[in-house]
Amino acid sequence: MIVRPRPHWLRLLFVWRGSVLPDILPQLLATTAFAIVVTVLHGRLFQWKIPLNFVPFSLIGLTLAIFLGFRNGTSYARYWEARTLWGTVLNDTRALVRQALTLADAPSEASLLAARLIAFVHALRHQLRRTDPAADFERLLCVEDRDRLRPARYKPALLLLMAGEWLRDRRQAGRIAPALVQAMEGPLGRLTDALGGCERIAGTPIPFTYTVIIHRTIYLYCVLLPFGLVDAIGPMTPLIVAFIAYTFFALEALGAQIEEPFGTDPNDLALDAMSHMIESSLREMMGEPLAPQDAEPGAFIQT
Amino acid sequence: MIVRPRPHWLRLLFVWRGSVLPDILPQLLATTAFAIVVTVLHGRLFQWKIPLNFVPFSLIGLTLAIFLGFRNGTSYARYWEARTLWGTVLNDTRALVRQALTLADAPSEASLLAARLIAFVHALRHQLRRTDPAADFERLLCVEDRDRLRPARYKPALLLLMAGEWLRDRRQAGRIAPALVQAMEGPLGRLTDALGGCERIAGTPIPFTYTVIIHRTIYLYCVLLPFGLVDAIGPMTPLIVAFIAYTFFALEALGAQIEEPFGTDPNDLALDAMSHMIESSLREMMGEPLAPQDAEPGAFIQT
Amino acid sequence: MIVRPRPHWLRLLFVWRGSVLPDILPQLLATTAFAIVVTVLHGRLFQWKIPLNFVPFSLIGLTLAIFLGFRNGTSYARYWEARTLWGTVLNDTRALVRQALTLADAPSEASLLAARLIAFVHALRHQLRRTDPAADFERLLCVEDRDRLRPARYKPALLLLMAGEWLRDRRQAGRIAPALVQAMEGPLGRLTDALGGCERIAGTPIPFTYTVIIHRTIYLYCVLLPFGLVDAIGPMTPLIVAFIAYTFFALEALGAQIEEPFGTDPNDLALDAMSHMIESSLREMMGEPLAPQDAEPGAFIQT
Amino acid sequence: MIVRPRPHWLRLLFVWRGSVLPDILPQLLATTAFAIVVTVLHGRLFQWKIPLNFVPFSLIGLTLAIFLGFRNGTSYARYWEARTLWGTVLNDTRALVRQALTLADAPSEASLLAARLIAFVHALRHQLRRTDPAADFERLLCVEDRDRLRPARYKPALLLLMAGEWLRDRRQAGRIAPALVQAMEGPLGRLTDALGGCERIAGTPIPFTYTVIIHRTIYLYCVLLPFGLVDAIGPMTPLIVAFIAYTFFALEALGAQIEEPFGTDPNDLALDAMSHMIESSLREMMGEPLAPQDAEPGAFIQT
Amino acid sequence: MIVRPRPHWLRLLFVWRGSVLPDILPQLLATTAFAIVVTVLHGRLFQWKIPLNFVPFSLIGLTLAIFLGFRNGTSYARYWEARTLWGTVLNDTRALVRQALTLADAPSEASLLAARLIAFVHALRHQLRRTDPAADFERLLCVEDRDRLRPARYKPALLLLMAGEWLRDRRQAGRIAPALVQAMEGPLGRLTDALGGCERIAGTPIPFTYTVIIHRTIYLYCVLLPFGLVDAIGPMTPLIVAFIAYTFFALEALGAQIEEPFGTDPNDLALDAMSHMIESSLREMMGEPLAPQDAEPGAFIQT
């Protein structure tokens, strides 16, 4: 995720980092080169003049607009829903720690629950990015818990079960009344929902056929476009084709990036920074020392 | 559902599987053939020149855009709501199993509830696809339960009632306090909602009249289009007509596929994979052995 | 509501039932006749040539698109919200019956609650369609309940109060603990919300001024259109005007139908079928015999 | 709010009441008169021919479409959210009265709560319309309550506190168990939310800058338009300009009306009718006599 | 936030305050000056005539519409969600104060909770605007609380924990039953959610790449536009370019303002006024004297 103050309007025209230009440069150069060739040949192919004008492009533009607008809106909705689910993770781990400190009459035991919740947050991140949570578990959990988690396929779900077991043990020891257990079941259930929601976004892409249709339409459009423009605007054709192709390719590339918001592309969610922040906030509530806040990195990119 | 990493941009242009081309090929060929005939005859019909230009098509394009954008957005909303409802099924069966293990002081009896919940998941899938759940019930339930379910018309609803009866028996045996019964009523109620939501999507189509109007408008548009283009772009007419018809037909076909998300079209939801996954996750929480994870199939298609 | 499998693409072009053609035929014929007259007179009115071309129509098209897209989306949102509210009625009556059977230790008395809930469902339908619920009440309720309901203005609200009284009587008889009464208040409250939601949709139309502006814009557009086309496409004018007018009139007529989803137009919600289905599902949970399932009617229309 | 059956399509063309024509007549006449002048002068200004054609207008149309579509959708969303909040007021006052009658074992005291809730509904209406609630309070509340409310700045919030105090008194008298008090806190909290939601809509307009930009763009567009059309369509220019200006001005005026849905414009919410209806429904549940139902007024307008 | 009655339609054309003109004046002047130069040179650059017409601009307009409409809708959604979250802060602090007065049998101690809640509201505002809350804490809290808050990184979260501790102390003193503690956990949890939601909006911008693409497309469009218009409309070119550039630049600037709704731009949320209002409403419920209501400021701007 790129977090930076809005640059001056002149500078914004020439920003390189955070643009998707690097990703689409090959296609863009190829399209522009082709447009130059068409312009030089005056739209002729082996002596045969391709008869095209702007009409087909404004007709096709119609369905392209529908496709691209839909794809764009849907990708962003996935991105923002994923962000909101991580917001729920923050909110409900905070709520559970507050409740462990104020509803259960066992303040010294709250740190065990907090550790499992922090481990849940990191385990969720590792599951979504398919990385190994062992180092974080080592840091946070006791040996028995780690042994139980190691063979598990759905580690975050198991950690929520272990949070429920903490609650059961307190209840069976008479440290918390049933009505208050019920109050703590609320955030626990919402964490279960957030976990399932993240799995849903990670596991269910936008129907693949959309990607195929949009991709084909854009490329066919950009290949035919020089023939449609060359008679009217002559030598300006390559510039205009490059301009239009840039907006189409950039829209498509950006959509592909944020459609899968848990990756590590520059525009994906900053899961590292967020889990770090959640851990800090929970530790502060527990009265534990915090890790130092990261210095603002120069590149404006959080991962 | 098609789950595959995004192919290279060149390869994506020629993908066959996952495209809707096979479904719309007859119409597309017919339309293109007609456009060729019109082009060869220079837009004449029995010596009479059909006078048309691009104007009517950009005017009609207006309502087409409204219709298609609406249809597309609505179909996808149904698809995503259906997916979210299945996410609720995962979340709340997980929550109930966690609660059975930590709120009821009868851990050995939790497996009976888990079995009924797994049976509920499979029964829901079978109801939505109108298939026979007997094999799954055989595998999961005792004889009495199966006998009670056999004549039932609304099997998943009955299984949720049986989950409620499990809870009643534990409560009457004094193994769980009323306030904690209330906590377990939460996920049980949300499963009832998810069941009703799936029935709603399966039973209430998008108003049929939309399908009729969109279909007619698209076909009339594509039949008239060659007459409107032939004077301006001559021999390029069939190519452009084929291109425009492809985007319209593909949009319509895709909309029809994902509008009914519980079917077995390539872009429909992977109910098989999801019920398998839910069963695995619940079994892992119960400490039971899991079925081996499916090898990633070569065709990228989950059902 | 029209429920039918998607017809073959050729057949779909000539479907009569389910299209809105019958509703808009007079206007469509009038518009087309006018276009024929204009074409025959070559756009002259009493020797004066009306000077118009396509430009005004693409400018006006802009606001028409905004209006129609808005009207269409809003009408469908009302339709779908109404459907979802009826889904809530199904879900929460099911939940209440399940709870009556498993939370209250008085299984034999559950049928009284179930009868009041079924009566609520039918009363809601009758209130929304302004029909007389007496026959359904006769079938379901005892004499005292019927006498109490007869003079009432808000019958469904009173039936929910009577459901609450059932709960009060069980609680005062010591058959259900307060915490479980609280659990049953959840679905009861959501039924109250669904009732209020249906009253809201039935009683609050889309601001009438939208209907007026859209109607006027469409008709003025279609009356002026032949003058704008006749110079360019001559004898094709009536066909194109008829085509464009068909899409506009059909969109408007469909919007007017689904905007009030509780009526009995072909595209309205199937309240009869839904209340029948809810009654069947509740009876099955109670172990009572079910009415036979309706044979699929040939006409594909549910009311 | 205008509630009337849909008039016949011919009559709908000439409806005066419910149209926004009266509001926009001055601007519309001014614009049309200017267009007539431009047409008579053939687009000349002091001998200088203003060179304009349709191109700038279709380019500007683009951003106008974005602005107007956004403004329109947002205004309606505010209108509908306000209506839904008033639906919540109905639902949750009904729920509280039902609970007062069935959860608290003090039926004779429920009428005190009902009176405070009815007073809350009227107080909310008066606060939103900045009118004086004294007459309604006089009719509904005892002297002490009125004295307490008189100096208050946030009267509806105080009435909800007084509803809570009713609950506290019943609880302290042992007439209602804590778990049932908790059940009644649900609707009470949702009334607090509905109150805050209405205050939010009433107090936070759509950012004023939108109004400014849209307004300027529309007027500049309509002033320049005759110069762009006069060469192409000559004497038809004033008619077309009037038509296009009508749709733009009407859209803007309607947006301004429903953006603030609590006013007394013809398209605003019928707060009077709604509070009357809520009072009737609550009285019917209490078994009290109802005010006679209003005869349907001839003008179709509810306030 | 600008709160003012809608000015007369003529006056609205010349409003300065509340327009974004001041922000975009430099770019607008530069663009217009460039258009004047192009017009004077008749589209020539060093004797070379730039061949362009309107076609490329209507094609590019397509993607611009998608981008701008998306950006605009998303920015407003963030603005409105932020406003709704602050509405939640109002609603749930009110609910907690009401509950402290009616559920806990310790009315004299409620003021301690109210003070912490008011401090929470101010702390949230200060955190979002990165200002120092010390003055507000000084006014509201005792020395111990202030000492505990001073080193904290997440002050509002800590204040919610302290509200929970108030509840714990009352419960341990036997002044409130567990079921009622549970009722108070509801609003406390929703305040936690509102806090996390504000942090989410403040910390997660719209993907930066959107800003880059939109910015570049708009500027390139406006720089090329004079060449495309000069042949057709000659000396009117600068006026039209200025008009189109104004709408584009204004849309972009407004989007950038409301995208970050917690700032102090004229169109940002009035956090000062809102926290002041919340404090007043809570004090009124507590029976404490209120600060005098602000006189309506002449400039219509709330911060």
Automatic annotation (TrEMBL), chains A, B, C, D, E:
Transmembrane residue ranges: 20-41, 53-70, 218-249
Offer one Pfam family short name for this entry. Bestrophin_2
**InterPro entries according to UniProt:** YneE/VCCN1/2-like
Membrane topology of the entry: Multi-pass membrane protein
Name its cellular compartments: Cell membrane
Ion transport found in the keyword field: yes
KW Cytoplasm (keyword) present: no
Which UniProt keywords are listed? Cell membrane, Ion transport, Membrane, Transmembrane, Transmembrane helix, Transport
Question: What family, per the record?
Answer: Belongs to the anion channel-forming bestrophin (TC 1.A.46) family.
**Full protein name:** Bestrophin family ion channel
Give the source species.
Variovorax ginsengisoli
Please spell out the taxonomic lineage of the organism that makes this protein. Answer: Bacteria, Pseudomonadati, Pseudomonadota, Betaproteobacteria, Burkholderiales
